[in-house]
Design a protein that fits this description.
The protein is mainly beta and about 425 residues long. Among the domains are: about 150 residues, Jelly Rolls, CATH 2.60.120.260; about 100 residues, Elongation Factor Tu (Ef-tu), domain 3 (Beta Barrel). The chain contains two helices and 32 strands. A hairpin with a 2-residue loop joins strand 26 and strand 27. The two termini are about 40 Å apart. The mean pLDDT is about 90.
Length: about 425
């Protein structure tokens, strides 16, 4: 058996944390917010049966990273620590006419914002900084994990001592670019943690010496896509995964998946794909190439970071399908039945055996992040096959310690309900 993928926690779906999700068109009764609300039974639907329709996610974790919105002495979404003054300057990066100017201050001063991230997640920082034209301050960027207190180094490691991950003492903008991994859930002791992004002017010189920053953004990388509860007609539509660095205004890369195959087929009731490596581009897109014979709806669309279990689920694997229909015998041998949903949810009964301490901790962390049945999960039993579920653990998660670190987890995973039979 190949690897199993299991993504649990409050928000493994990156679209739920995206700066914005846009679509070609939408039916106002089934808006775009439905596509990432963790409930496939309440779908999103396009406004018409258009050609080559798209769903696009800007995965940036916040707004105003370009420092365009400034009011009452502060940038919206940001805060200042320390006595140094913050101002909006026209000396932006790459021709921009708006950027952050911050003074060194008599004591430590920095502009900051807290970014909520999943523990163990991979992230991308992309920003620009320089010192002001007058003075000797150094433009500096720091990131601190507010759960562990550790700082991120320029090499992507975490340490107790204060670390500068980016510095620039020149008057020319340079790029602060770093891909890094957040400390694990075991170290953070939490599913999500705040990372504090700090922008500052430090070094010698006067307290009024300044540093400038512009286009400072953070976003998670991604390599997994799945759709749950849809009516995409495979004879008319070919799903494609796209990425971009500029919201598809000039950059548009078609991504080739590796798992479960090199092409994507809109299988019912769900389909999924995984890239061979994490994609570091900020913008992601599902493009439905072709002209459908009906208006397309999707219950849940997930872009995520695939989490492969270090050990596989053992055989036998039991699967059941519960017909989601209302059936009633009315007497006299007559019966009445109608479909409740467009597809029948599935239930998997599996046995995961952790033979190492790492596998044991991995399983325990996955369960803890799901909080039993509280948070939905994304589950691929075998990454060489097409099956994927958006669902939940059974209410009681049972494990049995056999000896040493060998632990078995007999578990039921029940698929979420699908959209109604008639929209």
């Amino acid at each position: 058996m190949s690897a199993a993928l299991l993504m649990t926690g409050r928000r493994p779906n990156l679209l739920a944390r995206a700066r914005v999700v846009t679509v070609s068109s939408q039916d106002t009764k089934y808006p775009v917010e439905n596509i990432y609300n963790n409930d496939p039974a309440t779908p999103f639907r396009f406004g018409s049966a258009g050609t080559d329709v798209v769903i696009t996610g800007d995965l940036a974790a916040y707004t105003n990273g370009d420092f365009e919105i400034f009011s009452a002495g502060q940038f919206t979404g940001w805060s200042v620590f320390g006595p140094g003054a913050v101002a909006q300057t026209a000396s932006g990066q790459g021709g921009s006419t708006s950027a952050l100017s911050i003074q060194r201050g008599a004591t430590l001063t920095y502009e900051y914002r807290d970014v909520s991230v999943r523990a163990g997640e991979e992230w991308r920082l992309d920003g620009w900084g320089r010192r002001g034209a007058v003075g000797t301050a150094t433009a500096t960027i720091r990131i601190q994990n507010r759960a562990t207190g550790k700082y991120l180094t320029s090499g992507g490691a975490w340490q107790v001592a204060v670390a500068d991950l980016y510095t620039n003492a020149t008057t020319t903008y340079t790029n602060a670019l770093l891909t890094f991994i957040v400390e694990s859930a075991a170290l953070c002791q939490a599913d999500e943690v705040p990372l504090r992004l700090e922008l500052m002017a430090i070094g010698g010189g006067a307290s009024t010496d300044t540093a400038f920053f512009d286009n400072v953004w953070m976003w998670p990388t991604w390599d997994y896509v799945s759709a749950h509860g849809h009516n995409i007609p495979p004879g008319f539509i070919v799903p494609e995964i796209h990425s971009s660095t500029d919201n598809f205004s000039g950059s548009d890369t078609t991504e080739a998946p590796t798992y479960p195959s090199a092409t994507i087929t809109a299988l019912q009731p769900t389909f999924w794909a995984r890239l061979s490596a994490r994609n570091i581009r900020r913008y992601c897109r599902l493009k439905l190439v072709g002209t459908p014979d009906t208006i397309i709806y999707i219950g849940e669309l997930a872009f995520a970071q695939a989490a492969a279990m270090s050990q596989c689920f053992g055989y036998p694997i039991e699967k059941s399908r519960t017909p989601n229909a209302h059936y009633e015998e009315t007497g006299g041998g007559n019966a009445y039945s109608y479909l409740v949903s467009s597809q029948d949810p599935r239930t998997y009964v599996l046995d995961y055996q952790a033979n190492t301490l790492a596998a044991y901790e991995e399983a325990e962390t996955a369960v803890a992040r799901a909080r039993g049945r509280h948070y939905p999960l994304l589950f691929v039993p075998n990454d060489s096959e097409s099956v994927v579920l958006h669902g939940r653990f059974d209410e009681t998660f049972t494990s049995k310690r056999i000896q040493g670190t060998v632990t078995t987890y007999p578990q039921r995973i029940k698929e979420s309900a699908f959209p109604g039979a008639i929209l």
